[in-house]
Design brief:
Elements: H1 4-18, H2 22-30, H3 46-57, H4 65-71, E1 79-84, E2 89-94, H5 105-114, E3 118-121, H6 125-137, E4 142-144, H7 148-151, E5 168-174, E6 177-181, E7 188-191, H8 192-199, E8 209-212, H9 221-236, H10 246-254, H11 264-267, H12 274-285, H13 297-306, H14 313-326, H15 332-356
Antiparallel strand pairs: 1-2, 3-8, 4-5, 4-8, 5-6, 6-7
Helix pairs in contact: 1-2, 3-4, 4-13, 9-15, 10-15, 13-14, 14-15
């Protein structure tokens, strides 16, 4: 019998050979059966890719992942260094999306800006499970927010149990299995009991679910795109050093400061947890290794091209490469200097976008 550790190694080996995302390689090796007609499109950003798939399944036209991403406000900025004394570990959370600290906010913005009828549902576990069963029986796809550790297929360490997750789409049930769309390009199934446990794990958004009730129409995408552009400019022009571009400048200082409580030279003075923190940075900035698509600047560039601002797109692709380079760094001063450059580059790029919207 293949152990969980051996299976994870097989998944990683397939990723290295084929270039597939983790979920796709996992699904290939787990041997899930055909998915019954749902179109698996893959994708980069879990929120935008999942919502785009749901809208397309309802016959709502004129959209793709990049447009949905931009309509929801596109990119964001944020940084938190977590310290978990119980496991003696440190983990870096990087917010690369608009309103990243609110798990449902971007989806709400997209649906409101497009004028799409939808339904949010949240209830106690048994009622939530019954509601999901009824929706799936009716042929609906449902977006849910499972805990990544509890859902199982990411094979995360126990220390991340209950630390949250990103949205996935449940689109079909077959016996005790449910089919998920988590940007995988081949069918991916999990046991229904695992899904139920995962979506009930995190108190902040336990049993949160979304279903699209609109169908067969072409919304005013152009107007929604304009709202999304104004949103990203306003959001990233704010002065907050927690939830806007000044977060990068603050993080830059933390790489060489020796006095602040969260300064890296102070937090990692004993060297413990540093490898894990650097790994979490790499996974956060680089879509090849992380869970939620990396820094998402290339996807934003795709949106700008489709929104009529193709001249601004190349700079955001360069910025995306700068973030990827950060993930390969291990020396604090070099990381601090790179973050300072990123703060300056993104501040200038947003100012240029703002100038075109006047």
């Amino acid at each position: 019998m293949t152990s969980r550790k051996q299976f994870k190694a097989q998944v990683r080996a397939r990723m290295a050979k084929t270039g597939e995302r983790y979920t796709t390689a996992f699904a290939h090796l787990s041997g899930a059966s055909p998915d019954g007609g749902w179109v698996l499109r893959g994708g980069t950003d879990p929120d935008a890719a999942g919502l785009n798939a749901m809208l397309a399944a309802r016959g709502i036209t004129g959209l793709n992942e990049a447009l949905v991403f931009g309509i929801g406000g596109g990119i964001g900025a944020g940084y938190i260094l977590w310290e978990f004394k119980q496991h003696n570990s440190r983990h870096v959370t990087i917010g690369f999306t608009n309103t990243w600290q609110y798990v449902t906010r971007r989806s709400e913005k997209v649906l409101e800006r497009l004028g799409i009828a939808h339904e949010w549902h949240r209830s106690a576990p048994k009622a939530a499970q019954a509601w999901l069963t009824a929706r799936l029986d009716a042929g609906d796809a449902v977006m849910v927010w499972p805990d990544r550790y509890q859902i199982g297929y990411w094979d995360l360490p126990e220390e991340l149990d209950g630390h949250g997750g990103h949205p996935v789409v449940v689109y079909r049930a077959a016996g005790n299995q449910v089919y998920l769309d988590d940007r995988n390009q081949v069918p991916l199934t999990v046991a229904r009991e695992d899904l139920d446990r995962a979506v009930a794990r995190v108190g902040t958004w336990k049993n949160q679910a979304l279903v699209i009730t609109d169908s067969d129409r072409a919304p005013d995408v152009e107007a929604a795109v304009s709202e999304g552009l104004r949103d990203v400019v306003e959001h990233l022009s704010a002065k907050s050093d927690s939830f806007s571009l000044p977060a990068w400048r603050k993080w830059s200082r933390m790489m060489t400061d020796t006095r602040a409580a969260k300064a890296w030279p102070k937090v990692f003075a004993d060297g413990q947890g540093l490898d894990h923190a650097l790994q979490s940075v790499r996974e956060g900035v680089d879509g090849r290794y992380g869970v939620t698509g990396g820094n998402l600047r290339p996807l934003f560039a795709d949106f700008l091209e489709q929104a009529g601002h193709s001249g601004l797109a190349p700079r955001w692709r360069e910025i995306g490469a700068m973030w990827t380079a950060l993930g390969e760094m291990t020396e604090f001063p070099a990381m601090g200097a790179q973050l300072a450059e990123l703060h300056a580059a993104e501040t200038d790029a947003i100012a240029r976008l703002k100038a075109t919207l006047r």
